[in-house]
Amino acid sequence: MLVRIPKAIDAATLASLRQGLADAGSDWVDGRATAGRQGAAVKHNLQIAENSETAQRLGDLVLAAFERHALFISAALPNHVYPPLFNRYDGGMAFGQHIDNAVRLLPGTARKLRTDLSLTVFLSDPDRYDGGELLIEDRYGAQSVKLPAGDAVLYPASSLHRVTPVTRGQRLASFFWVQSLVADDGQRTVLFDLDQAIQRLVATGGDAAAVTALTGSYHNLLRMWSHP
Ligand code: NI
């Protein structure tokens, strides 16, 4: 399931992120630093060094935008998140077809995180660069994603995906992985659809007893399927 999260980052935060990335200087390193063997062979971009003060400071701004975001929480059911990374594609850069590593060590710890979901938030306005589409394979084929600055897309980390070459301008983005309370994408999709329908019923003044019953079913499914 691909979920678009419009206006996830507000204009003021977006400006702070762009300024921080413009000032990052030598914190920009070869993107292959965090790629697995297959990914490294096709990855050609720049990335903010994971352990840098820049990555931590800007990453906190990104996480603050999502940690109370209702649509993100409904769709991702986050348990743990990997600290956000920041990448940059200048002219000619691209990231070929790959799949993200299933398990990652959380930086600076001995704890592991299972990457159930990936979230990419676009930081450059789409008219500032050509190319740079995020192509995500799902069961219906390749979905092409290129969103306004501040919008995000959440997608299963089990998907093959790539970033097409940037042929003009510069593409800035942030992304992070989520270990969900519900590992299975199909189960998570059922819960998301049910939750969204309940929210609509509440917003439109649906029958209160029916809303209560459906809310109960939602939580009982979540209890059955979640693994905190
Ligand atoms: Ni990837």
Structure write-up:
Helices cover about 35% and strands about 30% of the residues. The protein is α+β, with helices and mostly antiparallel strands. It folds into 2 domains: about 5-180, q2cbj1_9rhob like domain (Jelly Rolls, Sandwich); about 185-225, Rabenosyn, Rab binding domain (DNA Excision Repair, Uvrb, Chain A). Strand 12 (about 135-140) and strand 13 form a beta hairpin. The chain binds nickel (II) ion (NI). Nickel (II) ion binds next to loops.
Report the radius of gyration as a whole number of Å.
18 Å
Q: Can you tell me the CATH superfamily of the largest domain?
A: q2cbj1_9rhob like domain
Helix content: 25-40%
Q: Main beta sheet: strand number and arrangement?
A: 8 strands, antiparallel
How far the N terminus sits from the C terminus, by CA atoms, comes to 21 Å
- Number of DSSP strand runs: 17
**What is the CATH class of the largest domain?**
Mainly Beta
CATH topology of the largest domain: Jelly Rolls
In the CATH hierarchy, the architecture of the largest domain is: Sandwich
Percent of residues in β-strands = 25-35%
Associated small molecules: nickel (II) ion
Q: Could you give the order of the helices and strands?
A: EHEHEEHHEEEEEEEEEEEEEHH
Tell me the number of structural domains.
2
> Which residues sit in consecutive blocks of at least 5 with pLDDT less than 50?
none
Q: Number of helical segments?
A: 6
Shape: globular
